[in-house]
Amino acid sequence: TGANKSLIKQYIEIFKKANLNLLSLETESFALIRSLVGADLLNIMIIDMGASTSSITIVSKGIPVITRSLELGGLSITRAISNSLNINLERAEQFKQDLSLDSETAENSLPQTVEKAFAPILNEIRYTINLYNEVYSDKIE
User: Fold this and answer.
1) C-alpha 12: how far from its chain's center?
2) What's the distance, CA 92 to chain centroid?
3) CATH numbers and ranges of domains, the chain
4) pTM score of the predicted model
5) DSSP codes, the chain
6) Which of 68, 73, 113, 130 could pair with 84 as two cysteines, CB 3.0-4.6 Å apart?
7) Which ranges of 33-108 does DSSP label H, i.e. alpha helix?
8) Beta bridge partners of residue 48, listed in sequence order
9) Please, are residues 89 and 79 in contact by the beta-carbon 8 Å criterion?
């Protein structure tokens, strides 16, 4: 996973202007691997779902072997709830945070709405697993 060189230069300049000695920079996916995986040698999938983007990383024996970036995130689910229930985004976000897909709610359409909005992300997760399984012998299930 590489980082944009101009962005790196900007970070270096910011640290210099703040009189801070920058020892190293690492991409977010490597930081997640280092903090979540550690020395674990199992195959692990890390899904980092942000507001507007998400990333999927498969780590095998501590090494990232597949990384995918998606232009989908939690905001797409919030918008789907907002549109479905005709409420503002703030209220829809609260609904989303309070919701469990397995729970029974007064709004029968809400879990289905969330499931429908989450489907593209879930499809990308499945695609990434299939991609890994086609290339590597130690499968992910």
Assistant:
1) 26
2) 20
3) 5-135 (3.30.420.40)
4) 0.71
5) ----HHHHHHHHHHHHHTT--------HHHHHIIIIITT--S-EEEEEE-SS-EEEEEEETTEEEEEEEES--HHHHHHHHHHHHT--HHHHHHHHHH--TTS--S-THHHHHHHHHHHHHHHHHHHHHHHHHHH-SS---
6) 113
7) 74-85, 89-98
8) 55
9) yes
